[in-house]
Specification:
This protein has about 675 residues and is α+β, with helices and mostly antiparallel strands. It is built from 17 helices and 25 strands. It has four domains: about 120 residues, no CATH class; about 270 residues, Cupin (Jelly Rolls, Sandwich); about 90 residues, Methane Monooxygenase Hydroxylase, Chain G, domain 1 (Up-down Bundle), CATH 1.20.58; about 130 residues, no CATH class. Strand 21 and strand 22 form a beta hairpin. Its main location: nucleus. One of its GO terms (molecular function) is zinc ion binding. Its EC number is 1.14.11.27.
Amino acid sequence: MARSRRRVTRSATQKSPEPSPSSSRSSLTPMEDEPVQPPDPTPTESPPTKADEDVCPSCREDVHGEKNNWIRCDACKTWFHWACAGNGGDPELINKWYCGPCMIEKPSRVMTLKIPARKSSRKRTQLDYASLNAGVDSDPSRWLRVIQSKPIKDDNFRRMKGADVGLEWLENDETAMREPIVVESPEGLVMKMPPPEFTVQDVADQIGHETPVEVIDVATQSNSPGWTLGRWAEYYNTEPSKRDKIRNVISLEISGSKLADQVLPPRLVRELDWVEKFWPSTRKGKGHAYPKVQLYCLMGVASAWTDWHVDFAGSSVYYHILGGSKVFYFIRPTPANFQAYERWSGTEMQSNVWLGDMVDEVVKVTLHAGNTMIIPTGWIHAVHTPIDSLVFGGNFLHSYNVATQLKVIDIEKATHVPKKFRFPLFVKLCWYVGDKYLRDLKSKEEFPPRVLESLEALSRFLVSESRTMERGTEAARREAKENVPSDRVKDAPAMARELRWRVRLAAGATSDDEDLGRPVQKNMVNGHKRKRSPAGTTAGVEFRNFQPKGWDVVNELPRESGERVVNVHPPSTTDKWEQNWTDWNEELEDGDAGEQAAVEKTRDVVIKVRKTEGGVERQRIERVMEKWVWKDVSLKLEEGDPQDVEMKTADDEFVARVEGSEASVTPALLETTQAMEVMTA
């Protein structure tokens, strides 16, 4: 057994006293009435003498600290300063201790601790003083009785087959992910769940009986501290009549455990999930902080009740009943209902007012074992557990309703929801999402209108974060900057404003309106209808917050010009003359059969060069313009309005304009322009 003691001054021949095995006194504090033991013939058994009281085998010059505590190796019986050889803990708690050389000599030697003092396991009656002081009713079934007298509608939500729940449904159905859906059988969802016979005891066995778990007291809707999975499994397996309280577990996140290998969300969830799609894979897993909200295990006993709530950040939810049953009560996420929820949440009304009385309607959905439900963004809901149940589910953010997700964020801030109950690393995730969509927009990728609407809301949120960095208080600026992932986003304000600009361009906007709070009134100037602009004129496009990157060198070469005379027939409206003149080539002469035309040709070349992060980028722009004039030729046009013909090919831009009604034009003029742009990097 390891011995530790406080050093005292003794003679060179005096041995340190050893307490008897039955003694309960600490060996760190010597007692004056301890009998002096006879000398031990083994020199290594004696503690340091006055001559070597400041030296132990592990003493080093760089160790500075308390050297009054000594500890003896249980193998070689050598004494060491605890400050030199210990690990910084309390030596009073050590049962067996070995020095470094002895542990190397025999690796099976390990340090052990003393058995803790025995504590009574007898149950004691627990009084909920917090609830008594607040006047909260401790009856866990009170809301179930209230429901009996309230108007509750049965749901008319869609029942879908698992194979139909995919991206094609989301992109082709405008109502997709706007209301909850129920999939009665898991076939086709492409997800993985434990077998139906899986139990709460299996959960504890696979995750660990000593794993802490947050347990909710249903009567007060508050956390009960000190619970582990082993204790919870014991409670869950107790007969209902012998349970002291109704309790519930709704936030056991299982990522990284053995159980996580048996759970895989539905395919649609994985395809939409922001964390899955946009959080860098190199920054996930063990040792990295990332949003772990995809895999939850929920365990509730009969009569458990989860009060009205919106999942954090308005995240959507997938919910699979492995065993038991659940009854959901839903409230639609309308602006009026959100206002009612905000007034109710976090106030005294939450304890004594039925939220359903403050909203338009409450809808009821009952789920049974094997059912899966997907709850869209922002739906307010409460949950009743009629029988003991085991559920697997998870939360996910997506790009089809970002505005509502951000609205829930505002409600959480207004109702002072603690940060530990909010979506983890939400702002940093938004920066990752914005960065990826910005790169996609730069590469001309197209998105559905619902996604563009969401990206508009996301860009406004990121711009507001940028303004906080620029104009907020010192603490706010520091927090906003810490939320920016520096591995992807180098200039957050510029990135946010460029994203907003490109999203609006993709949506068909022509300018970047700085006043984001007011809806834009089209064709209105100072409250009056704006006059129609003259034909052929367009307003200039101004971008206040985004400056495209400039070029380091812009070199315009001298203009080249020349004239020549060719024999070619003039264009005629009676045949398809556009095709002949659109194919840009030098072989338009018709020989002697054609008519003489004078051709004036000019050529301008501009070369641009700039440095980039990866090297050099250069651009060559070449513009060639030709004017063809025929002498004494009438160009007849068909009756009708003036023609304005624009033709483009992949490599050339060709514009031909002929203005006038049915009239003779002498000389006839055909103007062609070729613009070629070559870019190499």
